[in-house]
Amino acid sequence: MSSIHAEALKARLSQADEVALLDVREHGQFGEGHLFFAASLPYSRFEIGLPSLAPNPAVELVLCDAGDGVAARAAKRAEALGYRRVRMLAGGTPAWRAAGYNLYAGVNVPSKTFGELVEHRRRTPHVTARELHAMLAAGENCIILDGRPLAEFRRMNIPGGICCPNGELALRVGDLVPDPQTKIIVTCAGRTRSIIGAQTLIDFGVANPVYALENGTQGWSLAGLELERHASRCHAASAGGDLDRLGKRARAFAGKHGVAFVGADEANAWCGERARTTYLLDVRTSEEFAFDAVGGFVHAPGGQLVQATDQWVGVRGARLVLVDAEGVRAPVIAAWLRQLGHEACVLEGGVQAAARLEWPRPGLPAPVPLPSIAPQELSLALQEGRARIIDVRPGMSFRHGHIPEARWSIRPRLEAVGRADDKSIVLVADEPMLAALAAVDLAEAGHRDIRALAGGQEAWRASGLPVAESADDPTDADMIDFLFFTSKRHEGSAEAARQYLAWEVGLVDQLDAQERAAFRIAGA
User: How far apart are CA 157 and CA 369, in angstroms?
Assistant: First the structure.
């Protein structure tokens, strides 16, 4: 493994050939400040996420940390998985900032920045919360479409709104809004999905007046208006209308942005190329994907794929092959991804064409099985002083309930557990794989008897054994897996909501020329 200095990495990110830039710090650290083009892959789950974020082991892989050596540990794991072109950002994020380059707070920064740029460039029409409230009070002919997934919609929504995630809008708007005189207001929790959803409908050529709700549900709350909670109104399971006509419109929409349509055989051949990375992404609903998923394709709901592209795509310059069932959703999403700067194309013939072939599937590492210990057996071992418990669940989960004798830790900081001794180390985890990964580091530190609590914390609680809560253990400073920056904006904190919205709007002003040039936003 080798290092790359900040200045060289900055130049490398402008080159056309592929590079994967992965930040291996934990979620909270990443959200406090990271490189614009970095995708987050915390070391605590590094081997789990690497094959999906960077599916081609031949890619150049650059790992970034806080200058604390975690990237070197991650590089060792990557090399064990077959990645041979691994480098580390010398000095990590402190060195990047010292070189005069910006670090960005928050998550999904490229997509959020893109939304703001789209609004500036396209002058997307919008209404304020007060204006929408007045329209509703006056009984105007209008409809509110919420571009978020149903789980988010259920938490809180604009009263009367209907859930229709952005990736579904072009396909389903005719069913939801048959009257071309009806005003359509697209909303989300903040800004990005409202803007992209509204602009999608405008660009798709719907006859209706279309607006984005400025600042979404947060703007509604800040205006002193009540949100609706636990609603379940959603688009129908199947789409009606003239799918052939919609498909032609979607194809024309995609063509304006240079989207290619590729045959299944050609796309399948791409997957075997070592010089390029190809992502296979199914943009349909979760229900459709569960019903007839094609092996090798990853579920990436279209609206969320635009909203949070870096959750699926870790390689700059890679090819993205999108698939749907009807030829409407994938072309529209591909058009947005092209404007985001990605080489996105559509699989001709959709899932039916894909199903004819075998596709490669990202492989997960096979963890060394950990011996388990039952809750009652662990309770006895604690009484007899034969065991120590390390809880590697999320810090907030630990605060809300843990075994009284447990100590919270996280994989990059397991060295704080202390020297190996004769006691068993018992790991408490929500996912067995996370316990197995933590055990790798503990074994390298000399611990010999490492076990996992069978059934995790829930099994302990179900056994009637004592559970403790702690409001400040781990401390905020120690809880590097939690992003406090965004946590309170949906919990009634007006100040947190204002700060978040100001952060979104302010992203554009932070861009340098290289970062701005990554986008290819179409003109009006």
Answer: 44
Interatomic CA distance for residues 302 and 309, integer angstroms: 10
38: closest CA among 114, 131, 102, 119?
A: 102
Same domain, 153 and 175: yes
At 256, list the tokens: 């304006």
For residue 405, give the nearest of 433, 430, 424, 422 by alpha carbon: 424
What's the rounded Cα separation, in Å, for the pair 383 and 347? 60
At 25, list the tokens: 């710090």
> Of the candidates 36, 40, 13, which has an alpha carbon nearest to the alpha carbon of residue 26?
40
CB 462 within 8 A of CB 394: no
pLDDT value of residue 200: 98
Q: Which residues are within 8 A (CB) of 53 and not within 5 positions of it... i.e. 6 or more apart? A: 20, 22, 39, 41, 312, 313, 314, 315
- Spell out where 148-232 has E strands: 162-163, 183-187, 210-213
Examine the domain organization and report whether 150 and 216 are in the same domain: yes
The percent of the chain in helix, strand and coil, each rounded to the nearest 5, is: 40, 15, 40
What number of other Cβ atoms are within 10 A of residue 72's Cβ? 15
**Residue 349 and residue 254 in one domain:** yes
pLDDT bin (cut points 50, 70, 90) of residue 367 is low
d(CA 444, CA 425): 13
- Could you tell me the pLDDT band of residue 353, with boundaries at 50, 70 and 90? very high
- What confidence tier does 486 reach under pLDDT thresholds 50, 70, 90? confident
Nearest to 302 by CA among 333, 326, 345, 278: 333
Q: What total of structural domains would you count in the chain?
A: 4
Torsion of Cα atoms, 370 then 371 then 372 then 373, to 10°? -140
366 Cβ contact partners less than 8 Å away, ≥ 6 residues apart: none
The partner residues of 88 in beta bridges, in order of sequence, read: 3, 63
Amino acid present at 512: D
Average pLDDT, rounded, for the chain:
95
**Cβ neighbours of 523 (radius 10 Å):** 5
Q: Which domain holds residue 181?
A: 113-241
SS3 424: strand
pLDDT at 483: 93
- CATH code at position 35: 3.40.250.10
Contact 325, 351 (CB under 8 A): yes
Residue 524, pLDDT above cutoff 70 = no
Predicted TM-score (pTM) above 0.90: yes
Angle in degrees, CA 498, 129, 184, rounded to 5: 130
**Cβ pair 419, 483 in contact under 8 A:** no
Beta strands 162-163 and 142-146: pairing type? parallel
Tens of pLDDT, residue by residue over 413-460, are 998 887 778 899 999 999 999 999 999 999 999 999 999 999 999 999
